[in-house]
């Protein structure tokens, strides 16, 4: 179907849809059933069977299975079967860890998927783009990624960059009319928008013609998306660490085996014991547990309204030292309310809060009536030059569109005007708001055929373009005196923390060309000022204080007037007495070197453009800071990409900004950034906790065997016991540590140095010293039991086995804090309690259940034995409390 050749009514007929109504839910279900989801085929996921078999491809595991096979052939059936079962269970745990990580990442991917603005059953909705079907009416605007192939029906200054499809980087101006040419290539189809391309300017409405693999993008095999797992820097660092640990563990294990053989011990027993020890000692599950810890932390972030798009940002969050945050909507409620109007040289006050239309317009104490000069025109123009809609849901009014536009609609309602007046005018041309232009304008034609331009925007942009202004006595030339009056009003309103929007108009001749916005938006008749407030969010002030205690500087960035920004910053206690406020014009006077010298003193940037943001990020980075930067518009993407942690807005953010970011705020709230940093710090600390636990346990396991061989004693553990210790102490407790909540003082510590090594802050010392102590107390248990009853080696090994397990399970609670085992409530982490109790139960089963005793070479222990075991198991914790650095 050559959609570009069809008129709009023909497209509607072919797709059985009308633009005012959109398609019905029944049509959606039928079309999705026929054509599937609107997505490109991703790379096939690895089958669960292959993922399970992957758990047994480790070299040392294969060697162990080979040795076990030899044991079976030599008649050691019980040991062989027991080892096979333990290896199988270990494989299941590894599989579960990897599957959990994969499922978590898939959920994150779905949550961060782009949204589309779609009309169904006559109402606009935001839905996941993968749910689009042919026939859907979609609205697109600057910053959106085109979600499917679309036949454009309305185009307002719409330009789309199609390099993803055509390779051509220059944006293409789009039209809504049918094209008569035949056999046009996609790049020449000016009334079509194609999946994956990017809206760089303007806005439009279109009808979805093709979805998923039927789109132009779907036809190009080289552009089919594939899923490729990229390791985070921490995972890469730990993978390299794992290789070093494998070599160390292998050498120590080889030393145990060689010493044993030189002492005349049976070759077969020593090889099997050595391989078992290597399998237990090598932390092959470390990368999987790291991924699980990261993904579990990410899940917790989702509950706190933050979606992580790049796992590497989780690590970086803990190092953040500066947060550069937008004011509007992030630090404030994003519920604009007009509180003052400046008109005819006087102030009018409006009552009411938020988007509720109940309220009055007052001149002093008197309610103004419909005869108030120029008020009807000002509020009427505010409705016409507007892209928002006021909706009534469950008795409450909400805004579909920009909050500033919404505030103008609510102000008009308080005067008795509503959006129905739009029907009295024909929209001829629209120039959408642009962050560079800082204004929006429309050309409308009234019932008498008269045309005029209405423009609204930043007063400092509109006043220089204005030649006249309205007074009670009519239109006057805007001279210096008139401009001074407006500027004084602006200063007064800004000092009250009001955001100010100016509005004006210009009559047009019927034949005037309407292509040049810059020309049309001159010789304006300035009408008045709207002063609106966006109150600070209640939770932001405590969040800023918490960030300050954590050594993180908060910087406000806004397009508002400097006085407005200063007032809000002081209310939030963001601006210290010595802190500076710098405007965009002042920023333009500074070169990058000067900005870098002054950046530490600046806390508020006012009247800035998105281009300024990039300079601000680079200036902070040059001073060694790790910078988090927020943004929502398409022009924010470069600064978000340049920041160490790019943060986009989930509600107001464009698709392009979300794609450039590493973190998406589902509620556009500054407090969520603080929560994400808290969680990011906690995830990193949790990873350190289980590295400490795993490695200290593994050091203890190797050393108890090495010490015994060096003393020419019998082996204190048999292979099946070594593997069992690894199974019951490494798996669940290590994972449970990764689910630990953050410590109370996590946001009172300085940001972590990004170049800090894994073993920094004394972690290496703790691992080695605790490992030695665990190995020694286990050996003491063996020597004590063996000395008391030299003929009962099973009893001595049971004492060693039990002491080793209990010492590790006590140690896991100490790993929860850098301070001591008593620093945290041991009952706080329910997952860890469950994991430890499960491990103790499994230990008791192999010690006391007769059918398992011959398999695990254990015997029942008495009360006195347990007393000795518990004293020895607690000894490392007691000694460590007095000997730690």
From TrEMBL:
Membrane topology: Multi-pass membrane protein
Keywords, sorted A to Z: ATP-binding, Cell membrane, Ion transport, Magnesium, Membrane, Nucleotide-binding, Phosphoprotein, Translocase, Transmembrane, Transmembrane helix, Transport
Coiled-coil boundaries: none
Magnesium keyword on record: yes
Pfam families in the cross-refs: Cation_ATPase, Cation_ATPase_C, Cation_ATPase_N, E1-E2_ATPase
Keyword Transcription tagged: no
One MF annotation (Gene Ontology) recorded for this entry: P-type sodium:potassium-exchanging transporter activity
Reaction catalysed by this enzyme: Ca(2+)(in) + ATP + H2O = Ca(2+)(out) + ADP + phosphate + H(+)
Residue intervals passing through the bilayer: 56-74, 244-262, 268-296, 690-710, 763-786, 831-849, 855-882
Any one GO biological process: potassium ion import across plasma membrane
Gene Ontology, cellular component aspect: plasma membrane
Entry similarity comment: Belongs to the cation transport ATPase (P-type) (TC 3.A.3) family. Type IIA subfamily.
Name of the protein this chain belongs to: Calcium-transporting ATPase
Originating species: Oceanobacillus indicireducens
Name of the gene encoding the protein in the UniProt record: yloB
């Amino acid at each position: 179907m050559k959609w570009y050749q069809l008129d709009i009514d023909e497209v509607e007929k072919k797709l059985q849809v009308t633009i005012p109504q959109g398609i019905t839910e029944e049509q959606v279900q039928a079309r999705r059933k026929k054509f599937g989801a609107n997505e490109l085929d991703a790379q096939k996921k690895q089958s669960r069977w292959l993922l399970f078999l992957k758990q047994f491809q480790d070299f040392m595991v294969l060697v162990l299975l080979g040795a076990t096979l030899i044991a079976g052939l030599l008649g050691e059936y019980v040991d062989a079967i027991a080892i096979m079962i333990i290896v199988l269970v270990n494989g299941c745990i590894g599989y579960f860890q990897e599957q959990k990580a994969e499922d978590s990442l898939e959920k994150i991917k779905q949550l961060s998927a782009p949204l589309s603005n779609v009309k169904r059953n006559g109402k606009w909705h935001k839905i996941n783009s993968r749910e689009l079907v042919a026939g859907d009416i979609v609205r697109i605007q600057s910053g959106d990624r085109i979600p499917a192939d679309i036949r454009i029906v309305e185009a307002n200054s719409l330009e789309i960059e199609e390099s993803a499809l055509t390779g051509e980087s220059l944006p293409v101006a789009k039209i809504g009319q049918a094209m008569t040419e035949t056999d046009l290539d996609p790049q020449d189809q000016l009334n079509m928008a194609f999946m994956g391309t990017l809206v760089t300017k303007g806005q439009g409405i279109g009808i979805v013609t093709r979805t998923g693999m039927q789109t132009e993008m779907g036809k190009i095999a080289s552009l089919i998306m594939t899923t490729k797992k990229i390791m985070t820097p921490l995972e890469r660092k730990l993978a390299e660490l794992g290789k070093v640990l494998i070599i160390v563990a292998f050498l120590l294990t080889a030393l145990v085996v060689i010493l044993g053989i030189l002492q005349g011990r049976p070759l077969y027993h020593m090889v099997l014991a050595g391989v078992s020890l290597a399998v237990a000692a090598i932390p092959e599950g470390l990368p999987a547990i790291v991924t699980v810890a990261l993904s579990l932390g990410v899940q917790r972030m989702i509950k706190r309204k933050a979606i992580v798009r790049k796992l590497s940002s989780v690590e970086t969050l803990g190092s953040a030292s500066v947060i550069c945050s937008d004011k509007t909507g992030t630090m404030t409620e994003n519920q604009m309310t007009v509180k003052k109007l400046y008109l005819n040289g006087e102030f009018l006050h409006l009552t009411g809060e938020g988007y509720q239309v109940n309220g009055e317009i007052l001149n002093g104490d008197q309610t103004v009536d419909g005869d108030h000069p120029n008020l009807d025109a000002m509020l009427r123009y505010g409705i016409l030059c507007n892209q928002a809609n006021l909706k009534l849901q469950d008795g409450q009014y909400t805004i579909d569109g920009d909050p500033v536009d919404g505030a103008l609609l609510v102000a008009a309602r308080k005067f008795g005007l509503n959006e129905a007046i739009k029907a009295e005018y024909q929209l001829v041309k629209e120039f959408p708001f642009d962050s560079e232009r800082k204004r929006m304008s429309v050309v409308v034609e009234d019932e008498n055929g008269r045309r005029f331009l209405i423009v609204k925007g930043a007063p400092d942009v509109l006043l220089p373009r204005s030649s006249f202004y309205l007074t009670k006595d009519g239109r006057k030339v805007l001279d210096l005196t008139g401009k001074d009056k407006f500027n004084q009003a602006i200063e007064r309103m800004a000092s009250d923390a009001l955001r100010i929007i100016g509005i004006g108009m210009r009559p047009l001749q019927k034949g005037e060309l309407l292509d040049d916005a810059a020309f049309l938006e001159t010789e304006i008749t300035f009408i008045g000022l709207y002063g609106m407030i966006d109150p600070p969010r209640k939770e932001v002030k405590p969040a800023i204080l918490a960030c300050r205690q954590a050594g993180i500087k908060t910087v406000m960035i806004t397009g508002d007037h400097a006085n407005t920004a200063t007032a809000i910053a002081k209310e939030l206690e963001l601006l210290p007495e010595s802190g500076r406020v710098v405007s965009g014009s002042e920023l333009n006077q500074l070169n990058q070197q000067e900005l870098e010298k002054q950046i530490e003193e600046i806390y508020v940037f006012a009247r800035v453009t998105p281009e300024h943001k990039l300079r601000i990020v680079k200036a902070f980075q040059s001073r060694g800071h790790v910078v988090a930067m927020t943004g929502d518009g398409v022009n924010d993407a470069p600064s978000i990409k340049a920041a160490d942690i790019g943060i986009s807005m989930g509600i107001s953010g464009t698709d392009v900004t979300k794609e450039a970011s590493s973190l998406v705020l589902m509620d556009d709230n500054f407090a969520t950034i603080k929560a994400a940093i808290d969680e990011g710090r906690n995830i990193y600390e949790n990873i350190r906790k289980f590295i400490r636990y795993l490695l200290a346990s593994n050091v203890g396991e190797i050393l108890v065997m090495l010490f015994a061989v060096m003393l020419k004693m019998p082996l204190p553990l048999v292979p099946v016991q070594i593997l069992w210790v690894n199974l019951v102490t490494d798996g669940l407790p290590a994972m449970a540590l990764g689910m630990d909540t953050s410590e109370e003082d996590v946001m009172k510590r300085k940001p972590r140095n990004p170049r800090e090594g894994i073993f920094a802050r004394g972690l290496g010392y703790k691992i080695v010293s605790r490992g030695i102590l665990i190995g020694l107390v286990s050996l003491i248990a063996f020597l004590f039991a063996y000395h008391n009853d030299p003929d009962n080696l099973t009893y001595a090994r049971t004492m060693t086995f039990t002491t080793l397990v209990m010492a590790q399970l006590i140690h896991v609670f100490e790993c929860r804090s850098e301070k001591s085992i008593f620093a945290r409530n041991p009952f706080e982490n329910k997952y860890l309690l469950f994991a430890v109790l499960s491990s103790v139960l499994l230990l008791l089963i192999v010690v006391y259940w007769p059918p398992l005793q011959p398999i695990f070479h254990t015997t029942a222990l008495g009360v006195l034995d347990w007393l000795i075991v518990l004293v020895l198991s607690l000894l490392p914790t007691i000694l460590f409390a007095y000997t730690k650095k």
